[in-house]
Amino acid sequence: MAEHVHDCIVVGAGPAGAAAALQLARDGLDVVVFERGKRPGEKNVMSGVLVTRKLHALVPDFRQRAPLQRCITEEIVCILGEDEVLRLPAIRNYHRLSHPHPGFTVFRSEFDAWFAQEAVDAGAELIPATLVEDLMWENGRVAGVHTRRGDLRARVVVGADGVNSTVAEKSGLRSPPQPAEVSLIVRQVLDLPAEQIEERFALQPGEGVILQFGGLVSGAPPVPPNFGGAGGRPGGQSAYYTELYTNRDSLSMTAEVPLDVLQACGVPLYDVLSARERHPYIARLIQGAKLREYQAHLIPWGGVDDLSCLYGDGVLLAGDAGKFTTEDGVGSWPAMASGAAAALVVKYACEKGDFSRTTLAVYRDFLDEEGLIETQREARQAWQHEGWYGKIRRRYPDRLLRIARRYSDGWVIGEGEHPYSLWGELYHSLVKPVAPWYVRWPLGLATWVDTLRWRRQGRSSDFSRFGSVMDD
Amino acid sequence: MEAHLDAKLATLISKPDPEPHIVVQTELCLACEGRPCTIVCPAELYWWEGNLVHNCEGCLECGSCRAVCPHGAITWRYPRGGYGVRYRWG
Hints:
The complex is a heterodimer of chains A (472) and B (90).
Chain A: E1 5-11, H1 15-26, E2 31-34, E3 50-51, H2 53-58, H3 62-65, E4 70-80, E5 85-87, E6 103-105, H4 108-122, E7 125-127, E8 132-138, E9 141-147, E10 150-159, H5 166-170, E11 182-191, H6 194-201, E12 207-215, E13 241-246, E14 250-258, H7 259-265, H8 269-278, H9 280-285, E15 290-300, E16 311-312, E17 315-317, H10 332-352, H11 357-360, H12 363-369, H13 372-384, H14 388-395, H15 397-408, H16 422-431, H17 437-456
Parallel strand pairs in A: 1-2, 1-10, 2-7, 4-12, 10-17
Antiparallel strand pairs in A: 3-6, 4-5, 4-6, 8-9, 9-10, 11-14, 11-15, 12-13, 13-14, 16-17
Helix pairs in contact in A: 1-4, 1-10, 15-16, 16-17
Chain B: H1 5-9, E1 13-15, E2 22-24, H2 26-29, H3 37-40, E3 46-48, E4 52-54, H4 64-68, E5 74-76, E6 84-86
Antiparallel strand pairs in B: 1-6, 2-5, 3-4
């Protein structure tokens, strides 16, 4: 190839890479995108909802043009027991249907191809079916990329090549992922006619829901409740996290677990997925569905320790390569936002004519404008120390189930159960383990009084007016 | 509905890279106790038959094996451009 020096090479045509290329092409810069798949998106797996806030900023009329599946109107959190399910309160928001940028389910094979085409239409050059194998160095800075089809030079290389990022490793900015900082996710797409999906989930065409399951996995060995390398990592059986979401004429079902937990438990993830399929509630939702495709992917979580590993001399990292995910593991909008921020950095550096690490450090400011520094910090904190909501959702599913079971059975005490009143049960299960002392002491005292009074009344039910399934 | 792993893997289209993209230094595996690669691989491409045996075909390219390998015995890279798995419904 000729010794032409491009303004920018973007490695990877996923959401981060395509957003960067789109922004750069619109700013009139000369940008080349490398993609290892024959078509963008065919190596990618969507594990959740596409959050479209940033997409709306980049392509305002995406709702008319992008290949979307269903608009997500409700996220239902469920806790599974052996043969029961607790659905936590959730709101179904019909106003999201007319919102400019709600969440959508998408197939990445369709969506990424469309998004990359947007960048190509804006003037970016896409080179598919080409793997970037190494970086080209010149005077201690990155000067281009090596591929089997030849070398290409650029003033800046943007690494948007995902969780197993070649650019991040070869540039020395980040080391390969460690088991504690990635989750493995397996996903299967299940064919089900649109009418049946709409009937089962009470939807209209174009509307969708997402269900998130924690709790017991029948057949998997127990995980110590506080297992995990870092402080607040999810433990217990709820470390196995399952999602079910609706596409136009299919369902996607995933099972996800941090790699270190998976390694310690020794049960393969596809067996966990099968165990979840057998749960009576899920089995009823997916009944009659036929397997369309099986997939697997790693997702990074926990953010980066130090933001200075996101930029180097002539190189920037965006998307999963820079571990841009929220504390809940949502990576779609942080990928697009970090890609767009990287593009602004490249434009700034081109105007200045300097591509050193010092100049590219302006990436921090652009990330801050996108709210991504905050996101990285939150993700890091959640990884090191889980918040109270995460604790309740992930760590105490059995306690929540017990409360719900007694509540719906009219608050009858079984043989050998702790004789707490309703408030006693709520306090001991949910408040005491997470609250600070100044909440614990007064509430503990009130609970003690309440339970004493309740016992003196002969343990009649707080909810006896609702009747009980045990009454007869 | 419930399908075995073989049936799940049969839904995939894959074009194996003639140059193997996973290379294992099996002598290092002899000292390995947990053999986590045999547990985590979502396509069951690693198994133990007195020494570690692996198969590069049908790899889902997630990179779990490399991340969990405690002895650095697994050299893993992406298959070359145009090769490897192709998700139609990713």
